[in-house]
Design goal:
Elements (H helix, E strand, L loop, with lengths): L2 H44 L15 H8 L3
Length: 72
Protein backbone atom coordinates (compact mmCIF):
# COMPACT_ATOMS: atom_id res chain seq x y z
CA UNK A 1 0.00 0.00 0.00
CA UNK A 2 1.48 3.29 -1.04
CA UNK A 3 1.83 6.36 1.09
CA UNK A 4 -0.77 8.28 -0.91
CA UNK A 5 -3.41 5.55 -0.54
CA UNK A 6 -2.82 5.38 3.24
CA UNK A 7 -3.25 9.13 3.48
CA UNK A 8 -6.46 9.03 1.44
CA UNK A 9 -7.86 6.18 3.57
CA UNK A 10 -6.97 8.00 6.79
CA UNK A 11 -8.57 11.17 5.47
CA UNK A 12 -11.76 9.28 4.58
CA UNK A 13 -11.97 7.68 8.05
CA UNK A 14 -11.28 11.03 9.72
CA UNK A 15 -14.01 12.79 7.73
CA UNK A 16 -16.52 10.06 8.57
CA UNK A 17 -15.69 10.19 12.29
CA UNK A 18 -15.78 13.98 12.27
CA UNK A 19 -19.20 13.97 10.61
CA UNK A 20 -20.62 11.62 13.24
CA UNK A 21 -19.13 13.74 16.02
CA UNK A 22 -20.73 16.88 14.56
CA UNK A 23 -24.15 15.18 14.37
CA UNK A 24 -23.95 13.96 17.97
CA UNK A 25 -22.78 17.36 19.16
CA UNK A 26 -25.67 19.13 17.42
CA UNK A 27 -28.15 16.69 18.98
CA UNK A 28 -26.64 17.19 22.41
CA UNK A 29 -26.54 21.00 22.38
CA UNK A 30 -29.95 21.60 20.77
CA UNK A 31 -32.01 21.46 24.05
CA UNK A 32 -29.77 23.90 25.99
CA UNK A 33 -29.78 26.28 23.04
CA UNK A 34 -33.59 26.17 22.93
CA UNK A 35 -33.68 26.94 26.67
CA UNK A 36 -31.38 29.91 26.11
CA UNK A 37 -33.62 31.19 23.31
CA UNK A 38 -36.69 30.95 25.57
CA UNK A 39 -34.91 32.82 28.36
CA UNK A 40 -33.77 35.50 25.92
CA UNK A 41 -37.36 35.91 24.71
CA UNK A 42 -38.61 36.27 28.31
CA UNK A 43 -35.89 38.82 28.97
CA UNK A 44 -36.93 40.74 25.86
CA UNK A 45 -40.60 40.70 26.90
CA UNK A 46 -40.07 41.71 30.52
CA UNK A 47 -37.14 44.05 30.08
CA UNK A 48 -36.32 45.66 33.44
CA UNK A 49 -39.42 44.32 35.18
CA UNK A 50 -39.35 41.30 37.44
CA UNK A 51 -41.00 38.12 36.29
CA UNK A 52 -44.59 37.65 37.46
CA UNK A 53 -43.59 35.06 40.02
CA UNK A 54 -41.21 37.58 41.61
CA UNK A 55 -44.10 39.81 42.53
CA UNK A 56 -43.61 43.06 40.68
CA UNK A 57 -46.96 44.23 39.33
CA UNK A 58 -48.52 40.97 40.51
CA UNK A 59 -51.96 40.80 42.04
CA UNK A 60 -52.02 38.75 45.21
CA UNK A 61 -55.21 36.96 46.05
CA UNK A 62 -56.31 35.48 49.32
CA UNK A 63 -56.31 32.00 47.78
CA UNK A 64 -52.77 32.41 46.50
CA UNK A 65 -51.51 33.57 49.89
CA UNK A 66 -53.28 30.76 51.74
CA UNK A 67 -52.01 28.14 49.35
CA UNK A 68 -48.39 29.32 49.48
CA UNK A 69 -48.20 30.10 53.20
CA UNK A 70 -49.10 26.61 54.42
CA UNK A 71 -46.30 24.58 55.91
CA UNK A 72 -46.35 21.06 54.48
Amino acid sequence: MGRKSRIMRTEFVWKKANGRYQEKLQTKIRPPLQDIEELNEEERLYGDQDLDEMGEEATLTREYLEKNSRND
